[in-house]
Amino acid sequence: MQINQTTLQLPPRAAKPRGTGLTMVIDGGIPLGQFTDLVSSAAEYIDFVKFGWGTAVVTSSLHAKIAVLTAHDIGFYFGGTLFEKYVLQGRFDDFRKFCQRHSARHVEVSNGTIPMSNSEKASYIRKLADDFTVVSEVGFKDPARSEQLPPSMWIEYIGEDLEAGASLVTLEARESGRSGICRPDGALRFGLIEDVLTSGISQGSLLFEAPTTALQAHFVTRIGPDVNLGNVPASAVIGLETLRLGLRADTLTAFE
Fold first, then answer.
1. Which phi and psi (to 5°) does residue 78 adopt?
2. Contact criterion met (CB below 8 Å) for 46 and 244
């Protein structure tokens, strides 16, 4: 990884393609010019871009954005909500074709909104795993539903998704950081996170949605610079990298 010359001792960070320390950026409809500038200026720190929820359907510049990502060797996938919309209408095969038509190598499979058991979600993971790298998601968009899901069930669902063929399991927080692993006021569910981290599940198989600096700083401090983080705003990628390297007040003394 290219870091400007310095005599500082910083935590090691792997260059792309990385297996850990992944950063997933969420695009909720950034204009093409801004998208191009943000991605180009931080490309070495971005591993994936997720076109959030169903924005891919109404983004006229989608092909151009994908071309920008391809030029910088950045993967992409479409939000799990779009997968759920296709399933809700009985059009799963059309979802597969949509992803293939856009040359997506990754897909996200979730059940955060529609009535779907985790076992049914796992069945879709199995159907897609031979053709795509599957990123699954555990947790609900509705904060109340997520809070009612005990840590033991989070752990069970994560294991079921991995067994079904998911390469990475995302822990829901939404782009607001107010659901899933977070409470409606934005506070992290610390007990849940600790239960997951001590469950024996490989941390490299987990991607924590962390759209805010506070969430990012907690995970970097608790797990280390090579924690996988997602739903990072495109404008916050450089800031996140400074957190990973102990170059921001929130983590300045964490790795000394």
1. -100, 150
2. no
- pTM for this structure? 0.95
Nearest partner of 54 among 141, 138, 128, judged by Cα = 141
- pLDDT tens-digit profile of 177-230? 899 999 999 999 999 999 999 999 999 999 999 999 999 999 999 999 999 999
Using only C-alpha atoms, the chain has a radius of gyration, in whole angstroms, of: 18
Distance CA 81, CA 161 (A): 17
Rounded Cα–Cα distance for residues 217 and 210 (Å): 9
Residue ranges of the chain with pLDDT lower than 50?
none
For residue 228, the SS3 value is: coil
Residue in 239, 167, 244, 172 with CA at minimum distance from that of residue 210: 172
Length of the chain: 256
Instruction: Tell me if residue 129 falls in helix, strand or coil.
Output: coil
The reported pLDDT for the residue numbered 6 is 86
> In this structure, are residues 163 and 135 in contact, taking their beta carbons and an 8 Å threshold?
no
pLDDT for res 1? 57
